Structure prediction request, 147 residues.
Amino acid sequence: MQTTADRLRAHGLRATRPRVAVLDVLDAATAAQQHLAVSEVELRVRAEIGAVSTQAVYDCLEALTLAGLTRRIEPAGHPARYESRVGDNHHHLVCRECGATVDVDCLSGVAPCLEPSATAGFTIDEAEVTFWGRCPDCAVRLATAAS
Prediction:
């Protein structure tokens, strides 16, 4: 099994301590079905390695995303979130209230799994879908508040 440092190098990146820590944090979060905002990544990385600047975390996330090791999710009205589940063309459920984000597999086949009605000459290789609604906790809270 490849180490985090090996994965970084395989994608053309130096395996710096902050990059390893950021990718490790995102791997653990992704395994727990969590999609982390930059502030959450920063807190967890600091818990792992101590001092790290906010700018270093942003730089690491940008490098990891450009290298294809992480994915940036940008739900409207919510901070960007990151995950390390990449390359499988899955989609997301986002709670309108709390911003909780959950993965949902594409059921229509392989990437891009959805076909647009027109492509304007583009070669389509991925589809990104965001489903909006309320998570179970927020739905219960709102129903209770309305009663």
